[in-house]
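Why does residue order matter? Because the sequence determines the fold. Keep that principle in mind as you read this record.
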Amino acid sequence: MVNGTQSAQTCYSPSSLTAAKIGKTFACCLFLVVSLAGNTLIAVIIYKTKTMRTTTNYFILNMAISDVLLPILVFPSSLLEMNEGFWFFSGEQGQAFCRVKFFIQYVSSLVSIVNLVLIAVDRFEAVVFPFRRPLIGSKLRPFFILTTWVALIVLSSPIFFGYKSVEYTGRLNCELMWKRRFFADNYLHSMPFVLMAIAFALITTLYSIILFKLKSQKTPGERSANAVKQRKEMREKNVLRMAVAIMTGFILCWGPSNIIALFFVFVWDDTTRLSCEIATYWSITLFMAYANCAVNPCICFAFSGKYRQALKSLIRCH
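Structure:
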């Protein structure tokens, strides 16, 4: 991961840098508050409302758990770095925190990608094969969730050992220290992009089949004789809209940073001498990626009447 802050120091006047710091600090604090509150509410709603304990909602809960790790472990240190502060810890504690920070950030994004695929598979089965026993049933849900975390932690383990806290001019910086750049660049920077591309292709295919199935079930203007079936179809469409919105939000937030990471690897040889425009764009893409942990709960409440109703019930109880 490239630190665009140092490059930006030589690009702007002191007043511009001060304004940028204020804006970044406000945005980071906003993401922190919204993410903590929103993802916690998602978890509480699913825990207390039995009707919300569906397979799709469990995968959304899994995403909420991964999203809440960012504001807890990443945002506080990012706020300190933006304001030229220091790490929370020094020595061995500082090294551990440095590694955990980027490791969690890396795993969190990968967990979200895999959960988007699992949500698409669940929606595909529910709409295309409504009478078939689901592949991801109540008994296998914990297995899929646990397997996702274990597999991605193993795949991401090299990043835990690759980062190191280094002191420059009285400041501690967390940087990738591998000498074998081929492995570090091609594996660590490329894997999220490749996984996202594969997931996007698979998800697009599944959702396209789902939309075709929903449109072929009823012709325009035709009224269903079965009111129960009609309500079920409407619920499926609402859940599908929410799932598509979550996928779209993730791609818009994480896509730019993954693309520019590939440019750092395969196009720009000297990342310490980046232009001001590239340094600014890199900083913006990082904040877009951070925003995703706050965007997801907002999408759930905006697109799902059940989440809004459960939130109202939760507020009334207190």
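DSSP finds ten helices and two strands in the chain.
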